[in-house]
Automatic annotation (TrEMBL):
Keywords: Signal. The keyword Signal applies. The keyword Signal applies. Residues 1-20 form the signal peptide. InterPro entries: Papain-like_cys_pep_sf, Peptidase_C92. This is YiiX/YebB-like N1pC/P60 family cysteine hydrolase.
Amino acid sequence: MKSLFFSCLYVLLLAGTAVAQPEVALRKGDLLFQDLDCGGMCDAIEAVTQGFGGHHFSHVGIVDISGDSVMVIEAIGVKVQRIPLAQFRSRNKNTIWLGRVREHPEEIGSAAVSYARRQIGKPYDGLFRMDEDKFYCSELVYDAFRKANGNKPFFTLNPMTFREPGKQQFFPVWEQYFKELGQAPPEGEPGINPGGISRSERLDVFPLK
């Protein structure tokens, strides 16, 4: 169950494009995608979805720059928090991928960060239901960019699934997890995931060097 707090639900595919880019300076509002090796739960997530180009992402954060400090705002652990980029990068050895908004990146990114900052300290959404009082990682990103886009959806919600591909039963790890919470999995409810966000046509995506 502890591994939940170091993973983030991503269960559907969205269309997107990978763009080869040279090394670039990070901007406020850039998205950073990670593949966190969190055990059985991450394995179950990766079995039902992927990011662009076949990559697997189980976590996403938002870049926040203040002066010379590069930070990342993310929903992880037990709450929304803001940590140094170096700490974010230290979690695993897999490549981190950067997603940058194609249109008006500075304007939209800055507004998204302003919203995300106001959510710092709010609890992690362990039930994976869209709720502005709690957040899982991609839910925070979704709401931040929705607010930045005049309260209109910027990324796309899709029905979530916790079932094994081609089968009716839930993954055992999810079944056990929700049993411990005394809740039914939110199968079919609208949600969003790091892999899906990475495939959005609104983003250019490339490795972070």
